[in-house]
User: Fold this.
Amino acid sequence: MATARAMIERRRSSRIPVRIPIRLFHGRESEMQEFSAEAIQVSRCGALLRTSVAPTPGSHLEVLHGLSQERRGCRVIRVRGAGPGVFELGVEIYHPSRSFWGVRFPGE
Assistant:
């Protein structure tokens, strides 16, 4: 397992703590499931999401920003329990955008 220092050095961009409502879409287009979630930390390249579902690492999700209604595809990197029926998902955005999360990142 990577040390905390190694993980920080590996990050491509800074993380910002936030509380952004989002919708997650998972599954094939004909069987798409929709879930409520919240982004609790964001970066240009990914996010830490809190939700009631636990997709497997490597799964594809679509994230719909609850305020801007912009949508991005992402891949689940990590899943961990955060309490009874609550999970935190680390996700990597396939095609990052500087404006997707609506926050200004350090160094911009």
The first strand starts at residue 16 and ends at 26. The domain at 9-93 is CATH 2.40.10.220 (Thrombin, subunit H). The chain has one domain: 9-93. Residues 21 and 65 are 7 Å apart (CA to CA).
